Each structure stands twice: as C-alpha cells, then as structure tokens.
Amino acid sequence: MTFCIPKITLCILLTWLYIQEIVSQQSSSKCENDLNVAVVVDGSIKDAANAKKVRSLIKQISDGFEIEPSKSAFSLGVVNFGISLHLPVDQSFSNLEFQFFVDQVDFSNVPRVITDYGQLFQSSNNKRSAYDNVLVTIEQYGTPHAKTFSKLISTLEKNTKIVKIVIGPDASTSTDTVLRIENFGDLLAQDFIRKATNAVCKSANSKSCATSMDIGFILDSSGSLRNQYPQIKGFIQDFANNLDISKDGVHVGVVTFSFYATLSIKFSDYVDKTAFKTAVGNIPLMGSTTRIDKALKISNDELFSTSNGARKDVPKILILLTDGSQTQDRDAVDPGKVAKTLRENDITIVSIGIGKGVNVDELEHIAGDRSRVYQADDFDKLIEGGFINNILQKSCETAKFKENRFNTVSDITFMLDGSSSAASAFGSLKDFIIYIMSRFTQYAHFGVLLGGDSSQFSIKHSSSQSIENLRAQMANINLAGGDRMNLDNSLQQALTEMQDQSSGMRQGVPKMFVLLTTSHQKPTGKELDKIKQIQELGGMFIIVAVGTNNYDPSFLFSIPREQKNVHLLPGQSGLNNAFADVISKQISSSAENIKQDAVIDLGFIIDSSASFKDYYDLEKDFIKRIGSRFNLDQYKTRTSVMTYSNYINMISKFADFHGQKSFESAIDNAAFSGSTSRIDKALAEANDNMFSVKSGGRAGVKQVLVIVTDGVSSASGVDPFAIAKKIKNQNIHVIVVAVGDAIKANSLDALGDQVFYMNDYADLGSLDFSTNIMNSVSDLAKKKVEALCQQEVDVGFILDSSGSLRNEYTKEKDFLKAMAAQFDVGKSAQVGVITFSYYTELSIKMNQYNDINDLSKAVDDIPLMGSTTRIDKALRQAQSDMFAIKNGGRFGVNKVLILLTDGSQTQDVGAEDPADIAGEIRKQGINMMTVGIGPGVNSTELARIAGGKKNMYQAESFDVLIGKPFLESVTKAGCEKAKEVLPPEPTCKAKVDVGFVLDSSGSLRNDYDKEKDFLKALAATFGVSDDGARAGVVTFSYYTEHSIKLNDHTSLDTFNEAVDNIKLMGSTTRIDKALRMTQKDMFSIPNGGRPGVNKF
Q: How confident is the model at residue 9 (pLDDT cuts 50, 70, 90)?
C-alpha cells in the first residue's frame, strides 16, 4: 500500500512551511545518535486541547533530532482498537515535514491498521535497518487501550528501546525510560520536554557503559555557577544514569572545588546509582574563586587513593567540569603540571568547558590532548542527551581500551633499527612502538635499544613509565647513524643488560625482544651465538622486518624459536594499529608462556576463615597468579595447597604433580569454610606432613611455604611461632603475607623468614604485590640447597626390583632419591644404582649424573624386573662394576654401598651366600649398609651383609620407610659412613719394590688424571708401607724426572697425594730417556731400593 500526502493546496503548504521556518528556531544542538523513532499516541485522547498539547510535545521532541534520510527518521502511529500507521519511518524527509504531518493527524481516524508491529520501523528496501529503533508511547492513565499498548511493547522490546510517557494521576515513580506527569498542562514544560528528548536520545546508542572503571568528577563550585549549579550537577547525574554503578562495575567519586577543594564523594561511598545521584544533588555551592590546581591535587592525593576506594587494576577516568579558568593566586600552581602527574599514574583526564569564560588551551594542557577537550556553549547544551552521550561513549571506549590492555608482567625491549636504511620508515616504526606500549598496563616495563653502527638504550626499563612519558621519550629518539643496523652489537647490548640489569631489567621477569629492522641482515655466526645465549637466559624474540629487499629471510627465521614470531612486511604501510594489536597479543602470550624452570616444592596455606568472606576469590586468584610464574611439573615446580580455618583441608599434595590447569582447578574448587582462624593447626600440618616424602616432598629441592593470614589465633597453650620455627629448622623457607589493618607492623616477623604486610585486602588483587612475592620465590629457587652430607664420597645403591615390590616400588625409589639428595651430588658426591631381581643391571653409573634432579628422573625411569630376589648376584655386580674407574668410580674417595630389599636371598641352585660376597666388598675398602622393609626380610642375613647389626636398618612398612623419622635416621647414618675411612686390603702382600714409569707427554693433556688414577689403583693392590711394598715414580716427556722415590712414602694415602701432585710435562715422548733414568735411579739404595727385595 502506498501512503499519500493529504490533499491541501500548495499555497497553504508553502505558507505553513515558510512561517514555521521563521518562527521555529532550530536548536543548534541535536541528538548525535541517528535513530528510527516510532511515536505511538493513545487514540483515547479525544479532547482537542489535550491532543494539541500532545502534538506540540511530539514536535518539540523531534526538534532535538536531525531528520533527514541519512540521519534520524520518525514514524507516527495511533492506538485505538488496533494500531494505525499514519506516517511510515522513511517518508519524513526533514523536521519541518514531519512536524507538518503531526499537525494534520486526526487521532480518531484509522487509515490503516497494522498487525505486524515491526512495520512501525520498516523502510523501503530495508535502507534504515542499520539504525537503532526507539518506540515512544504517549498514553493517558487508565486508557481503554492498555492491552494493545502492552502487546505492542512486549512484541518489540527484545530489539527495540522503549520510552513511555504516561499522563494522569498515577502514583508510580518516574524512571529514566518511564516518564510520568499528572496533567496535560505540564506536557509542554521545558524541563519535561528536555527529559523526554534526552530519554529518547540516550535510550539507543547510549547503552549503559558496563565497563568496570573508576570515574571521578571534578565539580566546579565557584561563584560564577550560582545560578547554574543544579545544571552542572545534573550533568553528573545524567552521566551516571548510563553507568553500571555496582560493586564490580563502575565506581564514582566527586571532588568539589572553588578556592578550596574537597573530596565530596569517595569511590567507596556508593555502589548504587540512585544513592550516588542523591548525594551529588546534596553537594552545596562553595561560591568563591576557581582553583583548578587544588582540585587536581586532591584528585591525585585522595580521590584515587586505595584507602578511599580506588581500585588498582581498573581503568581510571577523571572528568573536569568548569565554566572558568584557573584563578592566578600567589600560591597557584600550573594545573597542567598537576594533571601531568595524574596522567602519569595512568588516569585519563577529560576537560569540559561551559560557556565563553573557559580557557581552551588550559583545558587541553590539563587533558593532555585536544581530543579529550569538550565545549558546551551554554548549560542547556551541557545537559543535552547528545552532548552527554558523546562524552560517555568516548569515556567508555577509553575504559574498554584500557580494560583490554594486557596485564603482562614482562620486560619488553624494542630493538629499533636506527640506521640510514630506516630513515623513511623511522617515524612509522616509532608510532608502531608507542601504540604497542599503550596496549600494556604498568606491569610491563619497556626499553628501546637503538641500533646503527653502534647501539645504546635510548629508553631504559623503569617502573615509572607512563605512556605520556614514553611518547615524549620516543619523540626525542633520532637516527643512530650508519648505513645498516649492526645487529651483533645490539645483541651484545641486550645480552649484557640481561646479565647485569644496568638498564633496569628485573630479575625473575619474562624478557621479550622485538626486533624492528629495515637493514640487510646476514648471519656471521656471532649473532646466532648471542641469540642462543639470550634464549638460554629466558629471552624470547619477535621479528618485524620492513621492506622486501632489505633482509635475508632464512636468517630472520633462524632467530626466534617459533617461525610464527617472524613477520615480513613489504612496506611501512603494514605498521598499522591492527598489526600492532597482533604483535601486542603475541608479546603477551609469549611472555606468559615463559615459565621459570625452577626446581622447587612450593606450598601454600590459604586463610579460609570468616574474615576472608568477601575476599576469598581474590585470595585464591593471588595464589594462582604466583603459581603461574613457574613451570608446574613433576621434575620442576611442584605445588601443595592447604586451606584452614578451624579445620584443615589439604587441597592437593606435592605427590599429585599438578600442571597449571589442574593446580588452578584445585584452588577454584577449594570451598570456603568461614569458621575461626586456627593457624596453629595449619602450621602443624605443614610441619608434619605437607613436605614429607610420603606427600611428595623432595629432599635436596628448595622448599618454600607461602602463608596468607589476617591474624594469628590458636588454641590455648599452643604457640604458632614455635611451630613455625620448627618448619624453618627443616630448611623450609617461610613467606608470610599478612593482610588487613588489624595486624600491627612487624607483629608477625617471627612467623616467617620474609613477611609482607598489606593494610588492604584488595591489595591481594594487585599485580605489583603478587610480582614481589613471585620474585622472592624466584630468588629462593636459584639458591642451591645445602646437602646434609658434604663428604667426598661415591654412594652405590642396590635396588630390589623383585615381584614382591610390585605395589610399593615407587615408595622404595622415593626413599632412594630422598637419601641420595642428602649427598652433594655433582660436587663432592657421586651416586650409582644397581637394580636386581633374578638378573641384575647397572642402571646408573657413578659418573652419569651430576644433578640431583636429573638423577631423580633416572631413578623414576628404572622399570620393575618383577622376579625373584638374587641378592648374591647384585652384590657380585656391585663388587665388579659399581665403583670401577670405567664407570666413574674415583680412586682414593670413600665408598658406601647401601642395599635396599623387602625380602631375603632366593636359594636357587648355585646361589652364593651374599654375606660372603659382602665380606669381600668390605675388604676392598667399601662401607656397607642394609635397609630391610616389611616383615619379609631376614634380619640375620641383612646384619651379616652389613657387617653387623649397627649397619642394618629395618622399616616396618613402606610408609615407615618414607616417613620423616626413619628417613632422617638412615640418612644421618649414611653420612657418617661416608666419613668413615675403610682402607682396602692389598691383594698382593709380597715384600716388593714397585716402580712406575709415567708418560707425561702432550698427547695426555685431557686424560692425564685417568692415567694417574690407574697408577694409584695398581699401587693399591700392593699397598705401601715401610716393611711391605714400596712404590716410586719416574715421569717423562721430552725430559725425565724422578717424581717419587721408593723411600718417600710409607702409606698409600701420602703416596696417592704425591701422585695427584705430579704435573703434566706436555712435550714429546722420550721413552728411552725414562728407561735410562729408571735403570740408573729408580731402584738405587740412596733412593730407597732394598737389597734382596724383588723389583717390579
């Protein structure tokens, strides 16, 4: 159906339009939202005077919009017993046309009843489908058409914003979208027209700003505002209407100023929109001069203080409202300088000037950028929906941009090509860097390493970097010189910085390097070596190369560990914000994947008492954040988590080997208890069980306990500080996080090795604070655990792997690992393992591992053999192989052999008595211990193998075996055995003079010690004494030397020490000279040769 203009004479139409053009003052301020507005009027309004008032209201509302095909459009309908559409949405082409048709509408006439209410917004070819739809209903209270209105609203409300205007004696309260007025006479009051127009304007595009942020208002309260004060406060109230003011949403505060400035509303005062608006309305006028500087200072010092409710990790915006400029009193400070401090604290400032008395340059100086300065010609403009909406949307966009920044803890270094080849792209490269910097919060620290012929840090990493300061520093960076970037020099600078932190890099923080180059880069070998060193220190690279002819792709792809981190751009046009977002995301994800490979047992005690009710989730997030720094793995960082109140709940044990996801899941599922705080119980559990081998604690691994508490309470007579001391005496480092202002400073110092105090529970959510804890744990992880036994010793374990151990094999190996960890593996101690059942195997050689963690992995990988128990075979292999020089055994070093078994010798045909073999082993100078587990052992047999009951230990069960008391007693005994010297018995007891001719030529440079070890082993078979065997040494290369005479030493120990001190000659091989000296000197009487004694 086609809708036609009612027939009137052209003269009347032109005359009406001309008169309207003259008498109608088009408002200079229109709603900036382009909408489809359908006005539907109650057809029961029959009175002509009232209908005229309704028409006038509709026209004045429409006058707040620009009606034209590309902007807003209005349709008009009337409800009688259906809805008649008088004017479709796309047939009003201007404000004047629409208002003309409004005057022609007869509310009682029904030209066309529509059943599809969507037709109110339909346009030909759907050309207005992209615009938001707003339905405005005008009805009188008690209308007979209420059901039709209800059906209309319920049909459209899913996709359409609704504004209702109700006329009549309804006692209900008006809201932002339901406007109630008692009689038709009040419809045309200017205040009501403004409210109705704003309600329509704001209802669509001005969707509630749901972003979580802290918004502060600086309210000018000077004398010049005496008559307009309600309107400037009305701006704040209308602005607040569109904010999600709630506990977790938007928090609002107000600083009021004139000559003085005061914090009128704190961020912590209101989380309810209505209450906030009421409080704003009650702020009195000060009525003096205009000291903007004081208001900005109060904002910085008080408004955005955490003690007044400001949150650390949400976007912050400050909106200044003034109708004047700074009063230049004697003590006045440049408001721009004060504002700069606010901006450096990551607070975005918006300046709004009202009227002609403002200083626009001053407002820009305060805001820091012209784009954040807004001007309202007058106070009516200030409170118009379009003006408010524009500022609201920009503020929300700013908050969302900040909210979507990366909270990545990282030191990010931009390696910027400053050579002449980068000249044309240099500005784009710098802008690209600035944008990336803006995508991160303060937890990322930035450095810029400028490279040309030489390299230097133009911007050093710092905690006090604001984007404004960084932008200013970037503007001062100029080309470095040289025709290409000397990458080798830049990499050396980066490497040096990682090693000594001279430019401000932080310890324990992921390091990212973004290489931005336009230079021709080819490897020389030096670069790749430095790249490897940086990567070994934990650094990661992202490459952005600009200009297709300027680089060698094969070289660039060899720099990062992943090829996805290399980006080749044909030209500088690719350095846009969209690509910068890609790089920012890549930096963040790469940095977050840099985990510290610390070998550490990290325990957490979480306070689940009633006082943490409102902060329990924050506390758990804090624990998860600390865990996220480390590589959670069976052989790296293990975690254990316990919650406490009046009861203890062990959430996870070290033995569970949690990865990151399961660790976080366990914490998320930790239920809140909400009872009293019994920290003594938590400490007792940590002392007795948390770090035990049974629970997965590892000996020889750094162990750290992090305790969160807001106070110390315990049962009567129980001293938590004494329990904490016991924990620390086990070399478990205790970190205490003391939360809340109820804890006095230094009151918990004795509870931990390190104590961090925070007054505000909300600080648990601070990345700065958790980073401090992470860094402390990281530093501890780097410290080597002092082994209980520092003695130089070779320790051999004989590990029972028979079938009876099928269900307990892991515990037996846990005991072995825990005991081995008490020796200084890799420094003074070596460990080897023989595994046995029916067959035997040298599973781990003495010289195979020099790190306790690697040794532990190897022990875990030893499979179960699962057959009988041939102890004799295991002892025979130990005798021949365990301490052999070829398998890493060291000559002259004390030796201990420890047998672990849960059974006794299987009496097969041909089996030997294991005690006889053990006796032979002891005669070789090897101390022995035996450990029997469970009821199946033969105590007598084990005592005979060990050489007596004092060297035999028995655990009632495998749980006892890995329990702390038994493990400590056996470990202590093992350390004492390691110190005990058991001289080997010589196998050749003849009285003999033995001479050695020792090759000391250059070809032996790398194996000289092995040659001397062989010499000492041969000498040991004879023994060295005054009346028994004597030994001498002639050393040779090009020259010869009589290094040890036959009468120099009367004991094997001093002889061995003398052999160790013989230095390498390192020349040619003159055997003839050595033999001549031996013939002449070796066995002569003056040199100790004895007449009548055999010579060898």
A: very low
290 part of a folded domain: yes
User: HEC string of 109-123?
Assistant: CCCCEECCHHHHHCC
CA pair distance 259, 326, nearest whole angstrom: 10
Q: Which two tokens stand for residue 74?
A: 């209005």
The pLDDT of residue 984 is 73
**Looking at residue 735, which CATH number applies to its domain?**
3.40.50.410
Which residues make beta-bridge pairs with 675?
Answer: 609
Name which of 92-101, 805-814, 837-846, 1081-1090 the model is least confident about: 92-101
Q: Which residues pair with 322 in a beta bridge?
A: 353
Residues in the chain, overall count: 1096
pLDDT at 431: 94
pLDDT tens by residue, 236-268 = 988 887 788 888 889 999 999 999 999 999 999
CA 862 to chain centre: 37
Check pLDDT > 70 for residue 208: no
pLDDT band at 775 (very low <50, low <70, confident <90, very high): confident
Under 8 Å between Cβ of 837 and 799: no
Compute the distance between CA of residue 132 and CA of residue 732 in angstroms, rounded to an integer. Answer: 63
As a dihedral over the C-alpha atoms of residue 454, residue 458, residue 462, residue 467, rounded to 10 degrees, the angle is -140
Burial (CB count within 10 angstroms: exposed 0-12, middle 13-18, buried 19+), residue 260:
middle
CA 1082 – CA 1077 distance, rounded (Å):
7
- One domain for residues 436 and 528: yes
CA angle 527, 531, 532 (to 5 degrees): 120
Per-residue model confidence as pLDDT tens digits over 605-635: 999 999 898 889 889 989 998 988 888 888 8
Q: Which residues lie below 8 Å from residue 154, measured CB to CB, with a gap of 6+?
A: none
User: Is residue 810 located within the same domain as residue 872?
Assistant: yes
Per-residue b or e along 446-483, where b marks 16 or more CB atoms closer than 10 Å to that residue's CB: bbbbbbbeebebbbbbeeebbbeebbebbeebeebebe
Residue 477 sits at φ, ψ, to 5 deg, of: -85, 125
CA distances from 298 to 253, 265, 872, 952 (A): 12, 12, 85, 76
CB atoms within 10 A of CB 23: 7
Choose one of 748, 782, 816: the last residue of a domain. 782
Higher local confidence (pLDDT), 505 or 882:
882
Nearest CA to 59 among 105, 121, 119, 18?
Answer: 105
Provide the Cα torsion 145, 149, 151, 152; round to 10°: 140
Residues 627 and 774 in one domain: yes
Q: From CA 586, how far away is CA 860, in angstroms rounded?
A: 37
Q: Which helix (H) or strand (E) holds 498?
A: helix 487-500
What share of the chain has pLDDT > 70, as a percent? 93
Q: Return d(Cα 332, Cα 684) in angstroms, integer.
A: 61
Q: What is the pTM of this model?
A: 0.58
Q: Where are the beta strands (DSSP E) in 45-93?
A: 73-79, 83-87
Both tokens of residue 394? 């920009």
Residue 532, in any domain of the structure:
yes
Band of pLDDT at residue 124, cut at 50, 70 and 90: low
> Among positive and negative, which fits the CA dihedral 689, 694, 695, 701?
positive
Domain that holds residue 971: 793-978
Residues 914 and 1013 placed together within one structural domain of the fold: no
Q: What is the pLDDT of residues 913-930, one digit of tens each?
A: 999 999 999 988 899 999
Q: Which of 98-112, 221-235, 464-478 has the highest mean pLDDT?
A: 221-235
Torsion sign over Cα 137, 141, 143, 147: positive
Question: Of the segments 543-547, 875-879, 1011-1015, 1048-1052, which one has the largest average pLDDT value?
Answer: 875-879
> Does residue 735 contact residue 753 with C-beta atoms inside 8 Å?
yes
By the 8 A CB rule, do 770 and 737 touch? no
Residue 533 per-residue DSSP state = H
| Number of domains, the chain | 5
